[in-house]
């Protein structure tokens, strides 16, 4: 792959001074590829766990127990109304202090890495929005459907999993789309706790090579491209799940 | 969860719904699961939404906060710096940082709103190239991560400019303000575009029949009608912007997060101090943002188009 790119980008650098060093030097190329993987892992993991938080949270919000509902509403209000960046730092520096450390043969490593904390923090942040989104979707499911499930002997959990959630999901997709795009963009904040994702890595690259504008272009292309892919995928999914004449 | 009466697909069942007394004496089998049907709505007192989180929960959080500090004291021992001696000393310094957060949010919002109005109107322009260009700009700034935009403008804008003979330093926070105003601009543009398109076409036609020009129609008829429906999303974006301002600390702007970290550094980064200080930052933001969020929801309901 790199062999194909090298001649062009080296010539570009020699003739114009545009230094896309990641495309012609093995060391920087390896860093760049590693960053792609880390950032994709971070994004996929956060998206997945934020959906889990959203789905479980929406179920808990409909709980008959008042304390559970209040706890959920407290969680949602807190995570929605405080800066995600401060949440991330709080998770990493405060809770990170209390997690046990694992012996790695001579030195100790915290059980949860900075990557782990980034996933946890981002999932809870986006999850708080997802809960509200799913709740709105659940409210759109007709009461009679719920009753029908109940009359067929479904428990509250079974009705939620097999009947209500699949119907609600369709209604949720547009706002879910928005929130997941937002989450994707927020993953760059993991920079602050030294997760070697794209922003962090390219920052190192431009520190070493003094080529800020070029790396900025790469960053913008990378993230706008990822958002475009996510939006495209979500729209496809939305179209697939569309039922003519129903909502 | 919607109740019987709140269901979107409401169909009155005679004798069961709409308050009419039962017409038959037939026994009605009530479902066993009464609990699942319990509804929970945001109660309101005279149109003002009540706090979603009741007072006892806030109290509980504060007690937990105090306990965590108490535990910290126990760990720290008698001679060491405790939260209660360190915190009052550093409080003015930290709150000074928060003032800068507020300043950044005000100016970025102002700038973003003005630019966003222009960009939004460009998106509904009759000139095809202008419309396309405005769309492209909007999409670009909406879909770029805020932190990347911050980096971009902090590093690429000059830190010093020459005007005439004198050199003027550009403070970092003004550059950060400009960087943060750009995603706001793009999102405000979407709000403006959506609001303009939501005005019924009849308004345009009747304005035309009264010999208003396009510009006059826009400024004197369409935009004043848009104003009200743009306020709730606008406030929502203000809240999001304010919550993004701590990001500036990554780029060495002396705002609240940076001040807090410097204070903690000076105190030796003790875990027992880190927890209460970080909690304090979260609480300050929550106290500022939460009323805005509640008010936004309130206005949203108030301005909602009634069917």
Strand and helix map with partners:
The complex is a heterodimer of chains A (247) and B (307).
Chain A: H1 2-16, H2 26-61, H3 66-80, H4 84-98, E1 101-103, E2 108-110, H5 114-140, H6 143-151, H7 156-186, H8 198-209, H9 212-240
Antiparallel strand pairs in A: 1-2
Chain B: E1 44-45, E2 48-49, H1 55-76, H2 83-123, H3 128-143, H4 146-156, E3 160-163, E4 166-169, H5 172-198, H6 201-209, H7 214-244, H8 256-266, H9 271-303
Antiparallel strand pairs in B: 1-2, 3-4
Question: Quick summary of this structure?
Answer:
The complex is a heterodimer of chains A (247) and B (307). Helices cover 77% and strands 2% of the residues of chain A. With 247 residues, chain A is an all-alpha fold.
Write out key terms for the chains shown.
heterodimer, A: 247 residues, mainly alpha, MetI-like fold, two-stranded antiparallel ribbon, 2 strands, 77% helix, B: 307 residues, two-stranded antiparallel sheet, flat, disordered N terminus
What do you see in this structure?
The complex is a heterodimer of chains A (247) and B (307). Chain A has 247 residues and is mainly alpha-helical. Chain A is 77% helix and 2% strand. A two-stranded antiparallel sheet of chain A has the order 1-2. The longest helix of chain A has 36 residues, at 26-61. Chain A is globular. The N and C termini of chain A lie far apart (47 Å). Chain B has 307 residues and is mostly helical. Chain B has one domain: MetI-like (MetI-like fold, Orthogonal Bundle). Chain B is 65% helix and 4% strand. Chain B has helices spanning 55-76, 83-123, 128-143, 146-156, 172-198, 201-209, 214-244, 256-266, 271-303, and strands spanning 44-45, 48-49, 160-163, 166-169. Chain B has a two-stranded antiparallel sheet with strand order 1-2. Chain B has a two-stranded antiparallel ribbon with strand order 3-4. In chain B, a hairpin with a 2-residue loop joins strand 1 (44-45) and strand 2 (48-49). Chain B is flat and about 80 Å long. Chains A and B meet through helix 3, helix 4, helix 5, helix 6 and helix 7 of A and helix 3, helix 4, helix 7 and helix 9 of B.
